Amino acid sequence: MAQVSTEVPGDERGTLLSFVESQRAALREAAQGLTEEQAASRPSASELSLSGLLKHAAECELTWLRMAQQRPNERQRTEETWGEAFRLLEDESVPDVLAFWDGVAKETEAFIAAVPSLDDSFPLPPAPWFPQDAKVSMRWMLLHLVEEFARHAGHADIVRESIDGTRAMG
């Protein structure tokens, strides 16, 4: 697993990136040591699997990064393909998803390091869940990624404990 830089500056930018990475790591840790079959299992009342959570989190980060960059998202989901974001397809594996996410994480870190200010903002796409003509800052995006990953790290911990009794989060 690639990690974002280990020397985290003590400034706000470095602190936020450190918290994002901490929650990424919590999600990854939940799947460590499992077979592909175990990672794809849904042992709790939820429809969530560990491999699906990893894929969703990676694609979620890519989506926010592409919005911030104001670039097209090469993995943009449609209403018809939304469910595919939560499960691995036949040609996908946990190592593939983790490698993809490592690339996205590095790209996020480089992008955030290059923006002039965390106050810089970008428009949100039209969606029923966003206010019309809304914009968010880079700071908001990083905090949202912490929130998103932390929520799913909790889900992942429950799923992992349901698989084999192992607690993912120390």
Based on the model shown, name its key terms.
mainly alpha, two-stranded antiparallel ribbon, 5 helices, globular
Structural overview:
- The protein is 55% helix and 4% strand.
- The radius of gyration is 16 Å and the shape is globular.
- A two-stranded antiparallel sheet has the order 1-2.
- It has helices at 12-31, 36-40, 50-69, 94-114, 138-164; strands at residues 121-123, 135-137.
- The longest helix has 27 residues, at 138-164.
- By secondary structure, it is mostly helical.
Would you summarize the structure shown here?
This protein is mainly α and 170 residues long.
Estimate the strand proportion: under 5%
Distance between the termini: 19 Å
Q: Report the major sheet.
A: 2 strands, antiparallel
Radius of gyration: 16 Å
The helix content is 40-55%
Strand elements, count: 2
| Mean pLDDT score | 91
Strand order of the largest sheet: 1-2
Helix count equals 5
- Overall geometry: globular
User: What order do the helices and strands follow?
Assistant: HHHHEEH
Q: Which stretches are low in confidence, meaning pLDDT under 50 for 5 or more residues running?
A: 1-6
| Class by SSE composition | mainly alpha
